[in-house]
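Changelog-adjacent note: as of this version, every example in the card shows the full chain rather than a window. The one below runs 103 residues end to end.
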Amino acid sequence: MNAREPLLVLVDEWVRETRSPALVPDIRGVVVDTLDTGPTKTFFFAPAMIFHVLRDMVADGLILHTSRGYEVTAAGHEEARHVRERDPGLAGKATEAVRAVVG
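Full-length structure tokens:
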């Protein structure tokens, strides 16, 4: 698994849980707050990679970078759905990680 799949699922979960676009500090907070003890320790990416992976996903049309933050496109939602189907454990970990930060 590369960094793209778990990060896409994390951003998708953030948008679903908060009903608002994700900012880099939001996603970094999810990763950092749960990195050592929580579910993201198995996500295989470092917090420093977040911006670069987000930029690549924007270029690939999976997310949009707007003035409000990062939003998931229809293609991004579809890819996130496929990742969830292929790896239900990842979806659960992403939901748990986002809820731990959002409350």
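Structural remarks: The mean pLDDT is 84.
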